[in-house]
Amino acid sequence: MESLPDVPRVVQLPDGTYAYADHLPAPTQYSGPQVVHQHVHQAPPDRTVQRVALGSGVGAGMVAAGVYFGPLLVGVLTAMAANLALLALIAAVCAWGVVTVVRSVGGSDGTRAADNVRRARGRR
């Protein structure tokens, strides 16, 4: 039970709306101007997805699996796309090399073969 996230308390604000208690500002006494040192790139944690998932009956293990495997899946798909792009580039370079060699070495036969291929592609 210790691994489950804390579910915050819901409170009713003076205007009648409801809010999570952990999102309310802490009541403080005003002691003059304060220096705010804020790192813009460090956003506060957003627990909306976890709350929705836990509220819909999904257990904490499923939430943790989504948090872990979500970025992992994106990384794997990106790596596969990069590999396929590299293979396509290698295939295009090999095809260009074969056509160049056939044209230069084949003489009139190679030229005729290249013309036949060009005409066959043009008919589509």
Average pLDDT rating: 77
DSSP E strands, number: 2
Question: Which structural class is indicated by helix and strand composition?
Answer: mainly alpha
* Rg from alpha-carbon coordinates: 31 Å
The shape, in one word, is: elongated
Number of helices: 3
Biggest β-sheet: strands ordered side by side in the sheet: 1-2
N-to-C SSE string, H for helix and E for strand = EEHHH
Helix content: 55-70%
What proportion of the residues form beta strands (DSSP E)? under 5%
What does it look like?
With 124 residues, the protein is mainly alpha-helical. Helices cover 57% and strands 5% of the residues. It has 3 helices and 2 strands. The chain has a two-stranded antiparallel sheet with strand order 1-2. A hairpin with a 5-residue loop joins β1 (10-12) and β2 (18-20). The longest helix has 46 residues, at 60-105. It is elongated. The termini are far apart. The mean pLDDT is 77.
Notable traits:
2 strands; mainly alpha; elongated; 124 residues; two-stranded antiparallel ribbon
Topology:
Blueprint: E1 10-12, E2 18-20, H1 48-55, H2 60-105, H3 107-123
Helix pairs in contact: 2-3
